[in-house]
Design a protein that fits this description.
Distance between the termini: 11 Å
Mean pLDDT: 94
Largest sheet: 4 strands, antiparallel
Number of strands: 4
Radius of gyration: 14 Å
Low-confidence stretches: none
Structural class: alpha+beta
InterPro entries: CHP04076
Strand content: 15-25%
Protein name: TIGR04076 family protein
Organism: Candidatus Limadaptatus stercoripullorum
Number of helices: 2
Shape: elongated
Order of helices and strands: EHEHEE
């Protein structure tokens, strides 16, 4: 299986939604733009939260196994993906790519 790099490329905070709907958190996401993780053998890298991993796991495992070309012509590099975590208040977008 191939190694896959996961890089945080954007992080957004929706304050108006947080104020309206969210209960206070004890700890917010600590991932910062530029943080990078490596999945070996399609496994979740240490330090990557469950919510982010759940959103990207199918893409990471497929890329690790040699797959790609998700949704036809979605990505410029057909062996990559752009996936966001499932936090609707503070989504982080991750660029996922095979490491040659």
């Amino acid at each position: 299986m191939k190694d896959v790099r996961i890089t945080a490329v954007a992080k957004v905070r929706h304050d108006e939604l947080i104020e309206r709907y969210e209960l206070p958190l004890e700890e917010e996401c600590t991932v910062a733009v530029g943080d990078s993780f490596v999945s070996r053998g399609g496994e979740r890298p240490a330090g990557l939260c469950d919510g982010a991993w759940q959103a990207m796991e199918p893409f990471v495992r497929s890329l690790a196994a040699g797959g790609g070309k998700f949704y036809g012509d979605w990505m410029r590099d057909p062996f990559s993906a752009m996936v966001s975590c499932n936090d609707g208040f503070r989504p982080v977008s991750f660029y996922i790519e095979v490491i040659d």
